[in-house]
TrEMBL record:
Domain annotation Transcriptional repressor PaaX-like C-terminal: ranges: 193-279
A single GO BP: DNA-templated transcription
Domain Transcriptional repressor PaaX-like central Cas2-like span(s) in chain numbering: 111-184
Protein name: Transcriptional regulator, PaaX family
Pfam families: PaaX (PF07848), PaaX_C (PF08223), PaaX_M (PF20803)
InterPro entries in the cross-refs: PaaX-like_central, PaaX-like_N, PaaX_C, PaaX_trns_reg, WH-like_DNA-bd_sf, WH_DNA-bd_sf
PANTHER family: PHENYLACETIC ACID REGULATOR-RELATED TRANSCRIPTIONAL REPRESSOR (PTHR30319), TRANSCRIPTIONAL REPRESSOR PAAX (PTHR30319:SF1)
Transcriptional repressor PaaX-like N-terminal domain span: 26-92
């Protein structure tokens, strides 16, 4: 480690956005695999993945448990060779990671809006409580918010998005339609979001991320610190697309901080990429030189422009 690098504890206390509730080892594994080995033919040794999670203070036993849970859920594929075990993301998860990355990386770009809101009204019986929870969670991911308990609105997602969610959860007691704000309901659809609270979260993000930018531009961030910082930065920023209405700035309160947050996130995330990649290669190289060689960080631009399927990748 360079003598002028910032101590890890100092970075955690001063120059990192706070982890919003933290990441489970399972989520962290999927994030790391998606960050550095997305859509690659090779798999990765379990020992290397366990050491990679150790960077985030995940114990070996917790890391093994996370791998086993991901396997049981069908989110990773497994291969055994003698006494060694290798993993890779399942194709289904790869496409979800690609979709999520593209959505996060596109969030905040200038867009036109036709004034139409997509509205989902649903009624789910108590004996399908879990389906109700999953529906709300998935609608939130697509940028919907509850105007009323069972009436959700979005300005950025389409009726097709909503119908796909309903179909995936086998929910038929729902209606999807589009309308302008004047013809929807008594309340403004924007009232589905707590804009004051969201603006405060943006402000905190900006204040906590600027010191990290200063540190990385000054060359005071070591590879291990960069890996931790970059992963936590994504974990924090990825929540904004599900909490911001996504309307063009002209339709938002004056001085809405989304564009500033996006610009800062992009600069810091990209700047940390090469350093984080070098640490990933170092960790994985102790177990599998080929897997280490294949590790590649993805810039925000690469995440945004990555196609739904790539040539040579099964659809």
């Amino acid at each position: 480690m360079r003598s002028d690098s910032v101590p890890v504890r100092e970075l955690e206390d001063v120059a990192l956005p706070r982890a919003q509730g933290g990441s489970s080892p399972q989520h962290l594994l999927v994030t790391l695999l998606g960050d550095y080995w997305i859509r690659q033919d090779g798999d990765l040794p379990s020992a290397g993945l366990i050491d990679l999670l150790a960077e985030f203070e995940v114990s070996a036993s917790s890391a093994r448990a996370a791998l086993n849970r991901l396997l049981r859920r069908g989110l990773v594929d497994i291969r055994k060779a003698g006494r060694q075990t290798f993993y890779r993301l399942s194709h289904q998860v790869v496409e979800r990671v690609v979709e999520g990355g593209r959505r996060i990386a596109s969030f905040g770009l200038p867009t036109d809006w036709d004034g139409q809101w997509t509205i989902v009204a649903f009624s789910i019986p108590e004996n399908r409580r879990e389906s109700r929870h999953l529906l709300r969670s998935r609608l939130s991911w697509f940028g919907f918010a509850p105007l009323y308990d069972a009436l959700w609105v979005s300005a950025t997602s389409t009726a097709a998005d909503a119908r796909a969610v309903l179909a995936a959860l086998d929910i038929t007691s729902a209606t999807v339609f589009t309308a302008t704000a004047e013809t929807t309901v008594d309340r403004s659809p924007l009232s589905a979001w707590d804009l004051d609270a969201l603006a405060s979260v943006y402000t905190t993000f900006l204040a906590e991320t600027r010191p990290l930018l200063d540190a990385v531009l000054a060359g005071r961030v070591a590879p291990r610190q960069a890996l931790i910082a970059r992963t936590r930065l994504m974990d924090t920023y990825r929540r904004f697309p599900g909490t911001d209405p996504g309307l063009p700035s002209a339709h938002m309160p004056e001085g809405w901080p989304r564009e500033e947050a996006r610009a800062l996130f992009t600069e810091v995330y990209n700047a940390l990429g090469p350093l984080a990649e070098s640490r990933v290669k170092q960790i994985m190289g102790a177990h599998d030189a080929e897997a280490a060689r294949r590790a590649r960080f993805q810039s925000v631009e690469q995440l945004r422009d990555r196609p739904a399927t790539e040539e040579g990748t099964p659809a």
